[in-house]
Write a structure and sequence with these properties.
PadR family transcriptional regulator; 3-stranded antiparallel beta sheet; Arc Repressor Mutant, subunit A; 197 residues; single chain; WH_DNA-bd_sf; Tscrpt_reg_PadR_N; WH-like_DNA-bd_sf; disordered N terminus
Length: 197
């Protein structure tokens, strides 16, 4: 996994938090199980490698999710394997689980207009409170540009997976930058509108 340091010493992730938050852990684990039966440890490792680099799953979340999937008839536990420690459970997807994964993979994700984004809320509040909205937009633009530079570096030195995820994040940042520029050009009109409500 590619790791790089940001100016503040933190390690950025290619992933947008929004992507991870919307990722449905149970269906993703079912999808990984559809490839082949797995132990909980193996599922966690694969999930973290593909989807959870920014926020790895805890073992507790993996096993509690697997317990709910078993309770709901979407996975079964095959014969436990004896080892040096406790017996290891191998999870197998059921027909019901596979049907659910198949349906999930064919459904489009609903486009979301993000009408109440944090960016919009901050600009509107700055205008309502007679604070420098233009300065906020300039600061936000600079933060977005810095993140674009970091993601571009990830694309140059990362794997194909890292590169594609960086592209996804870059496209979202580019859309935000277009919105920032458009809003900056309309600040006077927006100020009049929000103050007259």
């Amino acid at each position: 996994m590619l790791t790089m340091k940001m100016q503040d010493g933190s390690t950025p992730s290619v992933y947008s938090r929004r992507i991870v938050m919307r990722m449905t852990v149970p269906l993703t684990l079912l999808g990984l199980l559809e490839r082949e039966p797995r132990h909980g440890y193996d599922l966690k490792r694969d999930y973290d490698a593909f989807f959870g680099r920014d926020k790895p799953l805890s073992f507790g979340q993996v096993y509690s999710t697997l317990s709910r999937l078993a309770r709901d008839g979407k996975v079964v536990i095959s014969d436990p394997e004896a080892g040096a420690g406790p017996d290891r459970k191998r999870y197998v997807i059921t027909d019901r689980g596979a049907t659910e994964v198949g349906a999930w993979l064919t459904e489009p994700v609903a486009p979301e207009p993000h009408l109440q984004t944090v960016l919009f809320a901050k600009v509107t509040l700055a205008l309502l409170l007679d604070r420098p909205a233009e300065q906020y937009l300039d600061t936000q633009r600079a933060a977005h540009m810095q993140r674009m530079r970091e993601l571009t570096q990830v694309k140059r030195s990362g794997s194909l997976v890292d590169s594609l995820l960086a592209d996804h994040a870059l496209f979202h940042i580019e859309a935000d930058l277009r919105w920032i520029d458009l809003t900056a050009a309309r600040l006077d009109a927006l100020a009049r509108e929000v103050r007259n409500r």
